[in-house]
Amino acid sequence: MHLEDRPRHPPSGAATQKEITVMYFAVFRELAGLDEETVSTTSVTPRDLYGELKQRYPFHLSVESLRVAVNDELAEWDVRLEDQDIVAFLAPVAGG
Amino acid sequence: MFILSEQPLTPDELASRLADARTGAIVTFEGHVRNHHQGKKVTRLDYEAYEPLAVKEGRRILEEAYEAFDILAARCVHRVGRLEVGEPAIWIGVSAGHRRAAFQACQFVIDEIKRRVPIWKKEHYADGSSTWVNCAEKMRTVAR
After folding, report:
1. Which contacts of B112-115 are long-range, i.e. CB under 8 A and separated by 24 or more positions?
2. Do A96 and B114 touch (CB under 8 A)?
3. ipTM beyond 0.85?
């Protein structure tokens, strides 16, 4: 299923536990002290997950200044995460 | 072609492979590491990429250039890893039948890469400090 077909604003109800691999790049990698980790989380969306990780690490950038990728593709902040997803938070880029 | 490279770029060799008999114009762009940024003396840069997505997004940008401009070939190589002042960090080459499309496409490609591709740059300064560019200038870390 393509990421864009995933439901947003998922139905209410108990959020399920999921294993999500989070990859950290650049400033996030330095602040977390990790290249990646697998987190066990009930976060429903990447937005929720970022909020959860902000409590664990000194991530200073707000969601508004970031993009998020799920399974190696740009994603909306409010898509529903699924078990085994791979998430990366993308700080403001500086290529070229 | 959009690729990331840990090896020094070879602009002459890359440019030599662009032309064929239909080519009327070739435009190339090189981004170099300069020795200053916002008044500070830069000693070196570290480029870091989220490689699978950087390549996907880079390829998409080149496809968009092919669709928008009447060009024959558009290629890009972007360095990752540690770069010294003066080194080329990115090479873009565009060939076309005519020069207007080549100039416009080349500008489009570099502008879009700078805007979209998940590559990050850490600048190291002469005073020993360093910072991830665009990631809130107040977040400075002491060089390790």
Report:
1. B112/B61, B112/B64, B113/A95, B113/A96, B113/B58, B113/B61, B113/B76, B113/B78, B114/A93, B114/A94, B114/A95, B114/A96, B115/A93
2. yes
3. yes
